[in-house]
């Protein structure tokens, strides 16, 4: 599925192994907006929605981040983590300007740890493809979406309906 991803209509290559439903979710590290380290193990035992965006400074990424931040308040058992390669300073500015308080925003700019382990890093661009990964409380990947065209929205309704069944 992810071998047919495009950006601006042009095929792209994603680094790392494709993450699939049923796999154990790889641990990853990233950087929080305050420059401290984020370790995915901090959320062990919780349902996690990893909302993957290329850059929060684009219209679709902004919408995706705000939408999932709003949805995060509806289920206290679900943690939403938005991941991009934006610098933590830009993420902090964005979170303050958009009242992102119900979800976590982290940067994968330093090592592309998430991007490679989850198969979202775009070769040669140092950006992440757009997508969604849902991990259950037992660290099992339960839902994966690699958005076919990086400039398109994920299927919000489908992922939100899926989360309601967990």
Overview in brief:
With 166 residues, the chain is an alpha+beta fold. The chain has helices spanning 59-72, 88-97, 113-117, 156-164, and strands at residues 6-7, 10-11, 14-15, 29-31, 37-39, 47-52, 78-84, 104-107, 121-122, 127-128, 131-135, 141-146.
Can you describe this structure?
With 166 residues, this protein is α+β, with helices and mostly antiparallel strands. The chain has a single domain (2-164), classed as Glutaredoxin (3-Layer(aba) Sandwich), CATH 3.40.30. The chain has four helices and twelve strands. The protein has helices at residues 59-72, 88-97, 113-117, 156-164, and strands at residues 6-7, 10-11, 14-15, 29-31, 37-39, 47-52, 78-84, 104-107, 121-122, 127-128, 131-135, 141-146. It has a five-stranded mixed β-sheet with strand order 8-7-6-11-12. Strands 3-9-10 form a three-stranded antiparallel β-sheet. A two-stranded antiparallel sheet has the order 1-2. 42% of the residues are buried.
List key phrases describing it.
redox-active center, 12 strands, 166 residues, three-stranded antiparallel β-sheet, alpha+beta
- The residue fraction in helices comes out at 10-25%
Task: Tell me the radius of gyration.
Answer: 14 Å
**Structural class of the helices, strands and pairings?**
alpha+beta
Q: Compute the number of structural domains.
A: 1
Please give the alpha-carbon distance between the first and last residues.
Answer: 24 Å
Name the shape in a single word.
globular
CATH topology: Glutaredoxin
Number of separate helices: 4
The main sheet comes to: 5 strands, mixed
Spans with pLDDT under 50 lasting ≥5 residues?
Answer: none
CATH superfamily: Glutaredoxin
User: Order of strands side by side in the largest beta sheet?
Assistant: 8-7-6-11-12
H-E order:
EEEEEEHEHEHEEEEH
- Percent strand equals 25-35%
* CATH C-level class: Alpha Beta
State mean pLDDT (0 to 100 scale): 94
How many strand segments? 12
CATH-derived architecture = 3-Layer(aba) Sandwich
Protein name: Thiol peroxidase
Keywords: Antioxidant, Disulfide bond, Oxidoreductase, Peroxidase, Redox-active center
GO molecular function: peroxidase activity
InterPro entries: Redoxin, Thioredoxin-like_sf, Thioredoxin_domain, TPX, Tpx_CS, Tpx_Peroxidase_subfamily
């Amino acid at each position: 599925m992810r071998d047919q991803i495009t950006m601006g209509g042009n095929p792209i290559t994603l680094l790392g192994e494709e993450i699939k439903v049923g796999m154990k979710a790889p641990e990853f590290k990233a950087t929080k907006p305050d420059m401290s380290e984020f370790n995915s193990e901090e959320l062990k035992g919780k349902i996690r929605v990893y909302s993957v965006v290329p850059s929060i400074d684009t219209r679709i990424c902004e919408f995706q981040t705000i939408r999932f931040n709003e949805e995060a308040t509806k289920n206290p058992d679900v943690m939403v983590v938005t991941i991009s390669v934006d610098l933590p300073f830009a993420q902090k500015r964005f979170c303050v300007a958009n009242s992102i308080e119900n979800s976590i925003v982290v940067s994968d700019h330093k090592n592309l740890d998430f991007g490679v382990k989850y198969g979202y890093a775009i070769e040669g661009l140092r950006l992440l493809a757009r997508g969604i990964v849902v991990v259950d409380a037992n660290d099992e990947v339960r839902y994966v979406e690699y958005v076919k065209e990086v400039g398109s929205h994920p299927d919000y309704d489908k992922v939100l309906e899926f989360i309601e069944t967990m």
